Amino acid sequence: xxxxxxxxxxxxxxxxxxxxxxxxxxxxxxxxxxxxxxxxxxxxxxxxxxxxxxxxxxxxxxxxxxxxxxxxxxxxxxxxxxxxxxxxxxxxxxxxxxxxxxxxxxxxxxxxxxxxxxxxxxxxxxxxxxxxxxxxxxxxxxxxxxxxxxxxxxxxxxxxxxxxxxxxxxxxxxxxxxxxxxxxxxxxxxxxxxxxxxxxxxxxxxxxxxxxxxxxxxxxxxxxxxxxxxxxxxxxxxxxxxxxxxxxxxxxxxxxxxxxxxxxxxxxxxxxxxxxxxxxxxxxxxxxxxxxxxxxxxxxxxxxxxxxxxxxxxxxxxxxxxxxxxxxxxxxxxxxxxxxxxxxxxxxxxxxxxxxxxxxxxxxxxxxxxxxxxxxxxxxxxxxxxxxxxxxxxxxxxxxxxxxxxxxxxxxxxxxxxxxxxxxxxxxxxxxxxxxxxxxxxxxxxxxxxxxxxxxxxxxxxxxxxxxxxxxxxxxxxxxxxxxxxxxxxxxxxxxxxxxxxxxxxxxxxxxxxxxxxxxxxxxxxxxxxxxxxxxxxxxxxxxxxxxxxxxxxxxxxxx
Length: 560
What we know:
Blueprint: H1 2-37, H2 50-56, H3 59-91, H4 98-110, H5 113-124, H6 139-162, H7 168-175, H8 180-208, H9 212-218, H10 225-234, H11 239-267, H12 289-314, H13 325-331, H14 343-372, H15 379-397, H16 400-410, H17 427-449, H18 453-461, H19 466-478, H20 481-494, H21 498-503, H22 511-520, H23 526-551
């Protein structure tokens, strides 16, 4: 009886702690933001729709919304077209170095958006290798930069499903005379439809809420909803207009989720899945050459080329000579640069924030994954867990800029605390943890759901209570997947820019904020120092992610 009471208390705490964190630091700020858009403000008041009519009556608002939809739509198409060949090469073929290549392809997903924007600016902007194409500040460059990290999302989401897809139906169609392309279109593509719909929805969400990449590459001509919210808040202090635009963003996110759900249900059908086995993957053949060429071109031109140009240009001084001057400027910055001090201070501050955010995200994410992995007999409880899963994933679909803006609105002496949280840096790791939390859950959850229920039942039969099962069965099963989750959380927190740009205080620059300010400053040498800072930030993030991938246990995968 006593053990049962402790078990109930433990599961209650596992639900209550993350839920309280989400309510206080996510749902409340978002609701307050919506209230501001309707004229009620944080403390309530009468509803006033005049601000909505004013904002949506502006031609600029509709241009910004149009930019957001076109950028996200085109980037989603490009990501899917390039991600499917990558999924086939990495999950249906077998060749030396494949595991390492899978890990390397994950790096673009966790690279800070600031680094991605700076890399493509260095490639297509003034003085860049492809400047002659005249694509600087164009829609094409923004789309390519948005596709840069999201090809990995498609490859991992579709590839993980494809690796477990039974191929007997495809082989039967080939025996009956169907060509390879026809068999793939008729058999494999419909089977992949749910995974494709899920991947496309995620990519569209990531692209429609992109901030750093569009801010650096798009300028005012390619402004999206995110950068417009930032402009209205920081430059014009138009909180009401920014809140109304956030409502438009919520509508875009909601519509995306609804369409995705309907597409997934329409495309789902009974498919036979098996556990991924490396021995079932085949060696590349001559007929795989077109797919491998597309995959190689994606890796070399879309991923490697911008990063290589970024590194090369960071090693050039203002006269074009090879030099370490840009890196020296980070260590001993001239007074003309917009830095609070040597960049080592920004690095140290970013690492401290990232450690705190990762610890918060890992603690709450592990509790959430344990709760969400349960499949109780009660239908009401199962529906409650599914609803809880949706709430946990909400930060993935709400932009970091909106989150940072909402925290600014609500964290003025919250709950009667005699201290304005907005004047400190405590909100930065909290916001970063909210961004990283869904990633942690998506890494840990499939591992816990994959545990054979018979193991739990056998342990219970032998007299183990819930805590014993957790300690002896579930936690050991998590194993190195916890290392992968920690890597995702740390890398995502280290490079977070959207919310941090709202919450950072004078004298407390994080490295992504410092890089963005250097890139946008007109002082001589500022752009080069920004390139060097982007290389440092990208190297730190990539190193962390590759280390986490090496710690990953065989078969562990993230459900993006």
